[in-house]
Amino acid sequence: MNDSPELLTWLRSNSDLYGTDLRGSQLAGADLSGLVLVAVDLSGANLAGANLQAADLRGASLVGANLTGANLTDACLNRADLERANLTGSDLTGAQWQGSYYDQQTIWPGDFAYKTSGAIGPAANLSGAYLNTADLRRRDLQNSNLRGAYLSGADLSGANLTGAILSAANLQRAYLGGACLRNARLNGAELQGADLRGADLTGATLSDLPSIAGADFSGVQGLDGATRSALSNRPAREIDTWNAYTRTTTRKSLQVAVSVQS
């Protein structure tokens, strides 16, 4: 159903559109105002000049969508995925972006302060944000400000956290396996039970940590000798704590890290 008038009629006649597959749809100039489009897949769709005023796009996929000149006033885009989307010239007045995702290829209107909008992506200001248990796998968060953010139980495996500020962040039981933490600041971060297996910690700072009890550092890369030694000399009550998920102790994981680096 690629014909815009036919598709628009169908959309407006259906009350339950949750999760509908609309990939690549041609909806340029369409009036979609007020529609509930929760979790709808609009990746690659042409929505240029579309009226999406007050539309509910929570959790929708807009990856690679053309939203140039679209009207998104008062729309709800919380948790929507906008990677590679083009929003040039769109009206974003009053739109909500909490927990939505963007990347370096997302094109925003020149006057929109997307870094402080609550959206998640490169250089985003997420200081103190509540992101407990968030699914951030493989997301681009380089140079983002996550100072004091609540990331307990969050899945950051494979995420790009190069240069990110994670000072005083709560990373308890977070999954950071394979994440790139090059030059990241983890000063004062809470790492109890965190899974850091295979993470790249080259140039990262890990001073003043409250506790590393149960943290798994198996196979980490780039951990310099001084930092590794400091971690290994933490109190026994910390480094002998068992990680219930990875089934190893912090002490043993640091020994594995040593063998990887040698």
Automatic annotation (TrEMBL):
It comes from the Bacteria. InterPro entries: 5peptide_repeat, Pentapeptide-BTB/POZ_domain. Gene3D superfamilies: E3 ubiquitin-protein ligase SopA. Transmembrane segments: none annotated. This is Pentapeptide repeat-containing protein. It comes from Gloeobacter kilaueensis (strain ATCC BAA-2537 / CCAP 1431/1 / ULC 316 / JS1). The lineage of its organism: Bacteria, Bacillati, Cyanobacteriota, Cyanophyceae, Gloeobacterales.
